[in-house]
Amino acid sequence: MKAWRPLAAATVAVLLTACGPPQVDRTGPQQDKRTGTLRVWLFDEANREPKETVVNKAVRQFEAAHADVTVDVRYIPVDSRSERFTGAFNDPSSAPDVAEFGNTDLASYVAADGFADLTGMLERWPAADDLSPSVLDTAKIDGKVHGVPWFTGIRALYYRTDVFTELGLEPPRTLDELVTTARRIRQARPDLYGISAGGKYHYAMMPFVWAAGGDIATRDNGSWTSALTGEAARRGVNTYASLISPGICPPAQCAGMTGTESVQAFAGGKAAMTIGGDFNRAAVDAGPVGDDYAVVPLPGYEAGSAAPAFAGGNLLGVMDSSDHSTLAREFIKVLAGKERQREMYEAMGNLPTFTDVQRRVAGDDPWIEPFIRSLQSGTRFVPATPAWSEIDAQEILPTMVQRIATGTDPKEATRRASEQLNAAFGD
């Protein structure tokens, strides 16, 4: 269970946050050089060495196959990515040829004409046939692929095996059972949250909506419209919000909790369950419950089903301004290829995006199997629109959950959130 290195904090931030759409004004290149320096931007890490080791292997492999090419890799801070990419989009002379970026930033960057269409590249790359379809969808805008999924992040249900054994409980098979199980635990063990469910943890809330058959928003004729007032969506929102209640996770402590804080509560021994990512493993292993927990897919509303998980993760793309576009595409095939993805998992715990690599990883490391099963059961994503950056920044979804948890009528809370979503979509 310890054959693992943690996903770095800077990378985790990319899975959970987005930035505002860049304002750009630039024109693309008129040439495609096959020699010279290939410029690459990758995100820096709190501990860069494991990542850099794998990247350097890819660089050596690529340079050996391209005698007149030098690959120049620069590591940029995640927190300043918005400014860096806006500058690169405005000034091609300062821009890289290849860049790593978060999939929640994709719509904003594509709207700024920042990244090239890679659809044709994937059609001619045999390995791409094994990319997880639902993860590949996170790299698409209007059906066109603008990045190769380098890794993904999936959440599942962590639970305390010692507490469940003590109380004679089994892992919940449905989301309704999740609520009743969490309530039983809190009643029997008032020193614990039945489940640490944060009001500001909307990436944990969204699977409840999708499992109920609802959605955050729908698209028709190119325009996005909120779907939160639909009956199915309201069912999912209400189920999640019901976890933030005195008998499970009291609003005074839990309504303001983020995803990170929710996982920290579980890792610190304060909760019997939480919804956490594969990337949270190191934090849980290092805490007092490190030897007394297990993971199962977050269930759906029907026994035996898995709730669709949010597919976070990072992509590798070719800048639209690149004057080495062919070389850039070839380098991505090396760095994001199956061999390097397997090495990135071993080095950092980054979940691969190729289904055959996922199966091999799960075979070697059974701990990751529930996440792979969740991934291969199907994932969902946020609305692919630049407006998502504004929606995220305004905390529209967390505010909706917090209002319900603190007494606002669910119909009123979802109505107000829908109005805010539609206003953002209309901007």
Automatic annotation (TrEMBL):
InterPro entries in alphabetical order: SBP
UniProt GO BP: maltodextrin transmembrane transport; maltose transport
Alphabetically ordered keywords of this record: Signal, Transport
Record's GO cellular component terms: ATP-binding cassette (ABC) transporter complex, substrate-binding subunit-containing
Compositional bias of kind Basic and acidic residues: 409-418
Region of interest (Disordered), ranges: 407-427
Pfam families according to UniProt: SBP_bac_8
One function term, GO molecular function aspect: maltose binding
Family: Belongs to the bacterial solute-binding protein 1 family.
Name of this chain's protein: N,N'-diacetylchitobiose transport system substrate-binding protein
Organism expressing this protein natively: Halosaccharopolyspora lacisalsi
